């Protein structure tokens, strides 16, 4: 039986519980694809939408502004749709969020200016942030305590498939047609809308939510204020701070795996064509550079995916707090090592290091899907988890805009990446201020 302490975590899990995990994971996969497709097509999109002759530093600035808009949209989406899910139900809200990010990703294919991209990124992120808040709460409520860490890790770990889809789109669609390929890649963003038909047909509301919904309802203001009530406020601030660290290091550290392989390849090409200008080198070897960039993104994502899946069993071994501390320490070590030494390694060793880099800098994100729903009672679970994970994006968005400004001033990536890696130190200390929730029942 599932409750036996010596049984496997998956013993006694029903077909319907697996169905919930599958649908939640598919929503999150497409969720991540909608966010990552910008990173797979940014250079071609920037070339099409910005004036010729725009410097690389200024292009990075525009990229960071768009990423900042995406993070800000995710923050508000997590709060708005998290509160909606607590009020009208998980399944119905999930449908709304998926339709929203599908529609606005599709519309990005028709933009004519970079500021239209920024506006649509904000709207896409409203749905993206809301979908995670709803799905993470639903998985936690449907699975028993023994299986929560594993199911949460599988749910969040499925995100790597979304990144793989974005890598494939970048390698085969965007690179195949630099002028129109990026628009086609964004058109693909409409496909997740089909998932909503399955959701409406198959999913029912969790029993815990149905019981809580039958009780006294709250206004939207009371609902949000409850996150800062005595006994809850400390947990809200804990989750929010952990997420700030995780999201800041994701956008400031983890995603630069692809930049490291790109820079190495660009340096190799420059040696081959030593008398050519950087601009002509980029034009002649554009396809080769794109493959190097996507290879770095693939390796980092692969390591990150393994880390996300491993976080669940490590949670059961070391507890929630021990797992977070271990991964933050690993992220610190690998971040400093990678940014300071990435030019020195052979190609084979560099590939291995990127996998390890991805493992330690991304793996703790599975803990947000595991730990945050456990911190809150049912009436606040979706809003609480969504607030912690998504509202942290506002802080991260501001940091990204600063990072973009530094790029426009030609501050090296090695310097900014090393500085942001030090944030992992804060996470090591903060996690010990929170409760250990391993093996506990969800609060009603």
Short recap of the structure:
The chain has 444 residues and is mostly helical. 77% of the residues lie in helices and 0% in strands.
What can be said about the biggest beta sheet? none
Q: How many beta strands in the DSSP annotation?
A: 0
CATH fold annotation = Growth Hormone, Chain: A
Q: What would CATH call the class?
A: Mainly Alpha
Q: Which bin fits the share of residues in helices? A: over 70%
How many domain units? 1
Compute the number of helices: 19
Q: What structural category do the secondary elements indicate?
A: mainly alpha
One letter per element, helices H and strands E, the order comes to HHHHHHHHHHHHHHHHHHH
Shape-level CATH architecture: Up-down Bundle
Strand % is under 5%
Distance between the termini: 24 Å
Q: Could you name the CATH homologous superfamily?
A: MFS general substrate transporter like domains
| Parts with pLDDT < 50 across at least 5 consecutive residues | none
Radius of gyration: 21 Å
Shape: globular
Rounded average pLDDT? 85
């Amino acid at each position: 039986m599932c409750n036996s302490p010596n049984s496997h975590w998956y013993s006694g899990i029903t077909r319907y519980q697996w169905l919930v995990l599958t649908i939640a994971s598919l929503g999150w996969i497409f969720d991540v694809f909608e966010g990552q497709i910008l990173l797979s097509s940014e250079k071609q999109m920037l070339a099409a939408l910005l004036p010729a002759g725009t410097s690389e530093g200024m292009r990075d600035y525009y990229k960071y502004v768009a990423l900042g808009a995406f993070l800000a949209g995710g923050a508000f989406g997590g709060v708005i749709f998290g509160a909606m899910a607590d009020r009208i139900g998980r399944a119905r809200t999930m449908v709304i969020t998926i339709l929203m990010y599908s529609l606005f990703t599709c519309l990005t294919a028709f933009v004519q200016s970079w500021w239209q991209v920024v506006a649509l990124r904000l709207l896409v992120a409203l749905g993206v942030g809301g979908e995670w808040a709803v799905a993470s709460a639903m998985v936690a409520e449907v699975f028993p305590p023994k299986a929560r860490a594993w199911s949460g890790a599988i749910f969040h770990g499925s995100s790597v498939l979304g990144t793989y889809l974005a890598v494939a789109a970048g390698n085969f669609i965007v690179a195949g047609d630099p002028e129109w390929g990026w628009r086609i890649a964004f058109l693909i963003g409409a496909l997740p809308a089909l998932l909503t038909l399955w959701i409406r047909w198959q999913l029912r509301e969790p029993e815990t939510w149905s019981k809580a919904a039958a009780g006294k309802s709250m206004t939207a203001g009371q609902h949000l204020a409850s996150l800062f009530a005595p006994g809850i406020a400390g947990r809200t601030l804990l989750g929010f701070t952990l997420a700030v660290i995780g999201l800041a290091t994701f956008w400031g550290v983890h995603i630069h795996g692809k930049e490291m392989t790109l820079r190495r390849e660009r340096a190799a090409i420059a040696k081959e064509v030593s008398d050519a200008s950087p601009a002509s080198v980029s034009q002649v070897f554009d396809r080769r550079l794109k493959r190097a960039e996507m290879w770095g993104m693939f390796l980092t994502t692969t390591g990150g995916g393994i880390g996300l899946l491993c976080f669940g069993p490590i949670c059961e071994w070391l507890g929630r707090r021990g797992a977070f501390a271990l991964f933050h320490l690993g992220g610190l070590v690998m971040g400093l090592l990678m940014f300071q030494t990435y030019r020195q390694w052979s190609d084979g060793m560099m590939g291995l290091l990127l996998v390890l880099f991805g493992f330690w800098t991304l793996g703790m994100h599975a803990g947000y899907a595991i730990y945050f729903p456990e911190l809150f009672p049912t009436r606040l679970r979706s809003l609480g988890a969504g607030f912690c994970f998504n509202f942290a994006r506002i802080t991260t968005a501001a940091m990204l805009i600063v990072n973009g400004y530094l790029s426009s001033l030609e501050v090296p990536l090695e310097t900014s990446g090393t500085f942001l890696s030090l944030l992992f130190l804060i996470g090591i200390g903060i996690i010990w201020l929170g409760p250990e929730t391993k093996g506990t029942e969800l609060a009603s």
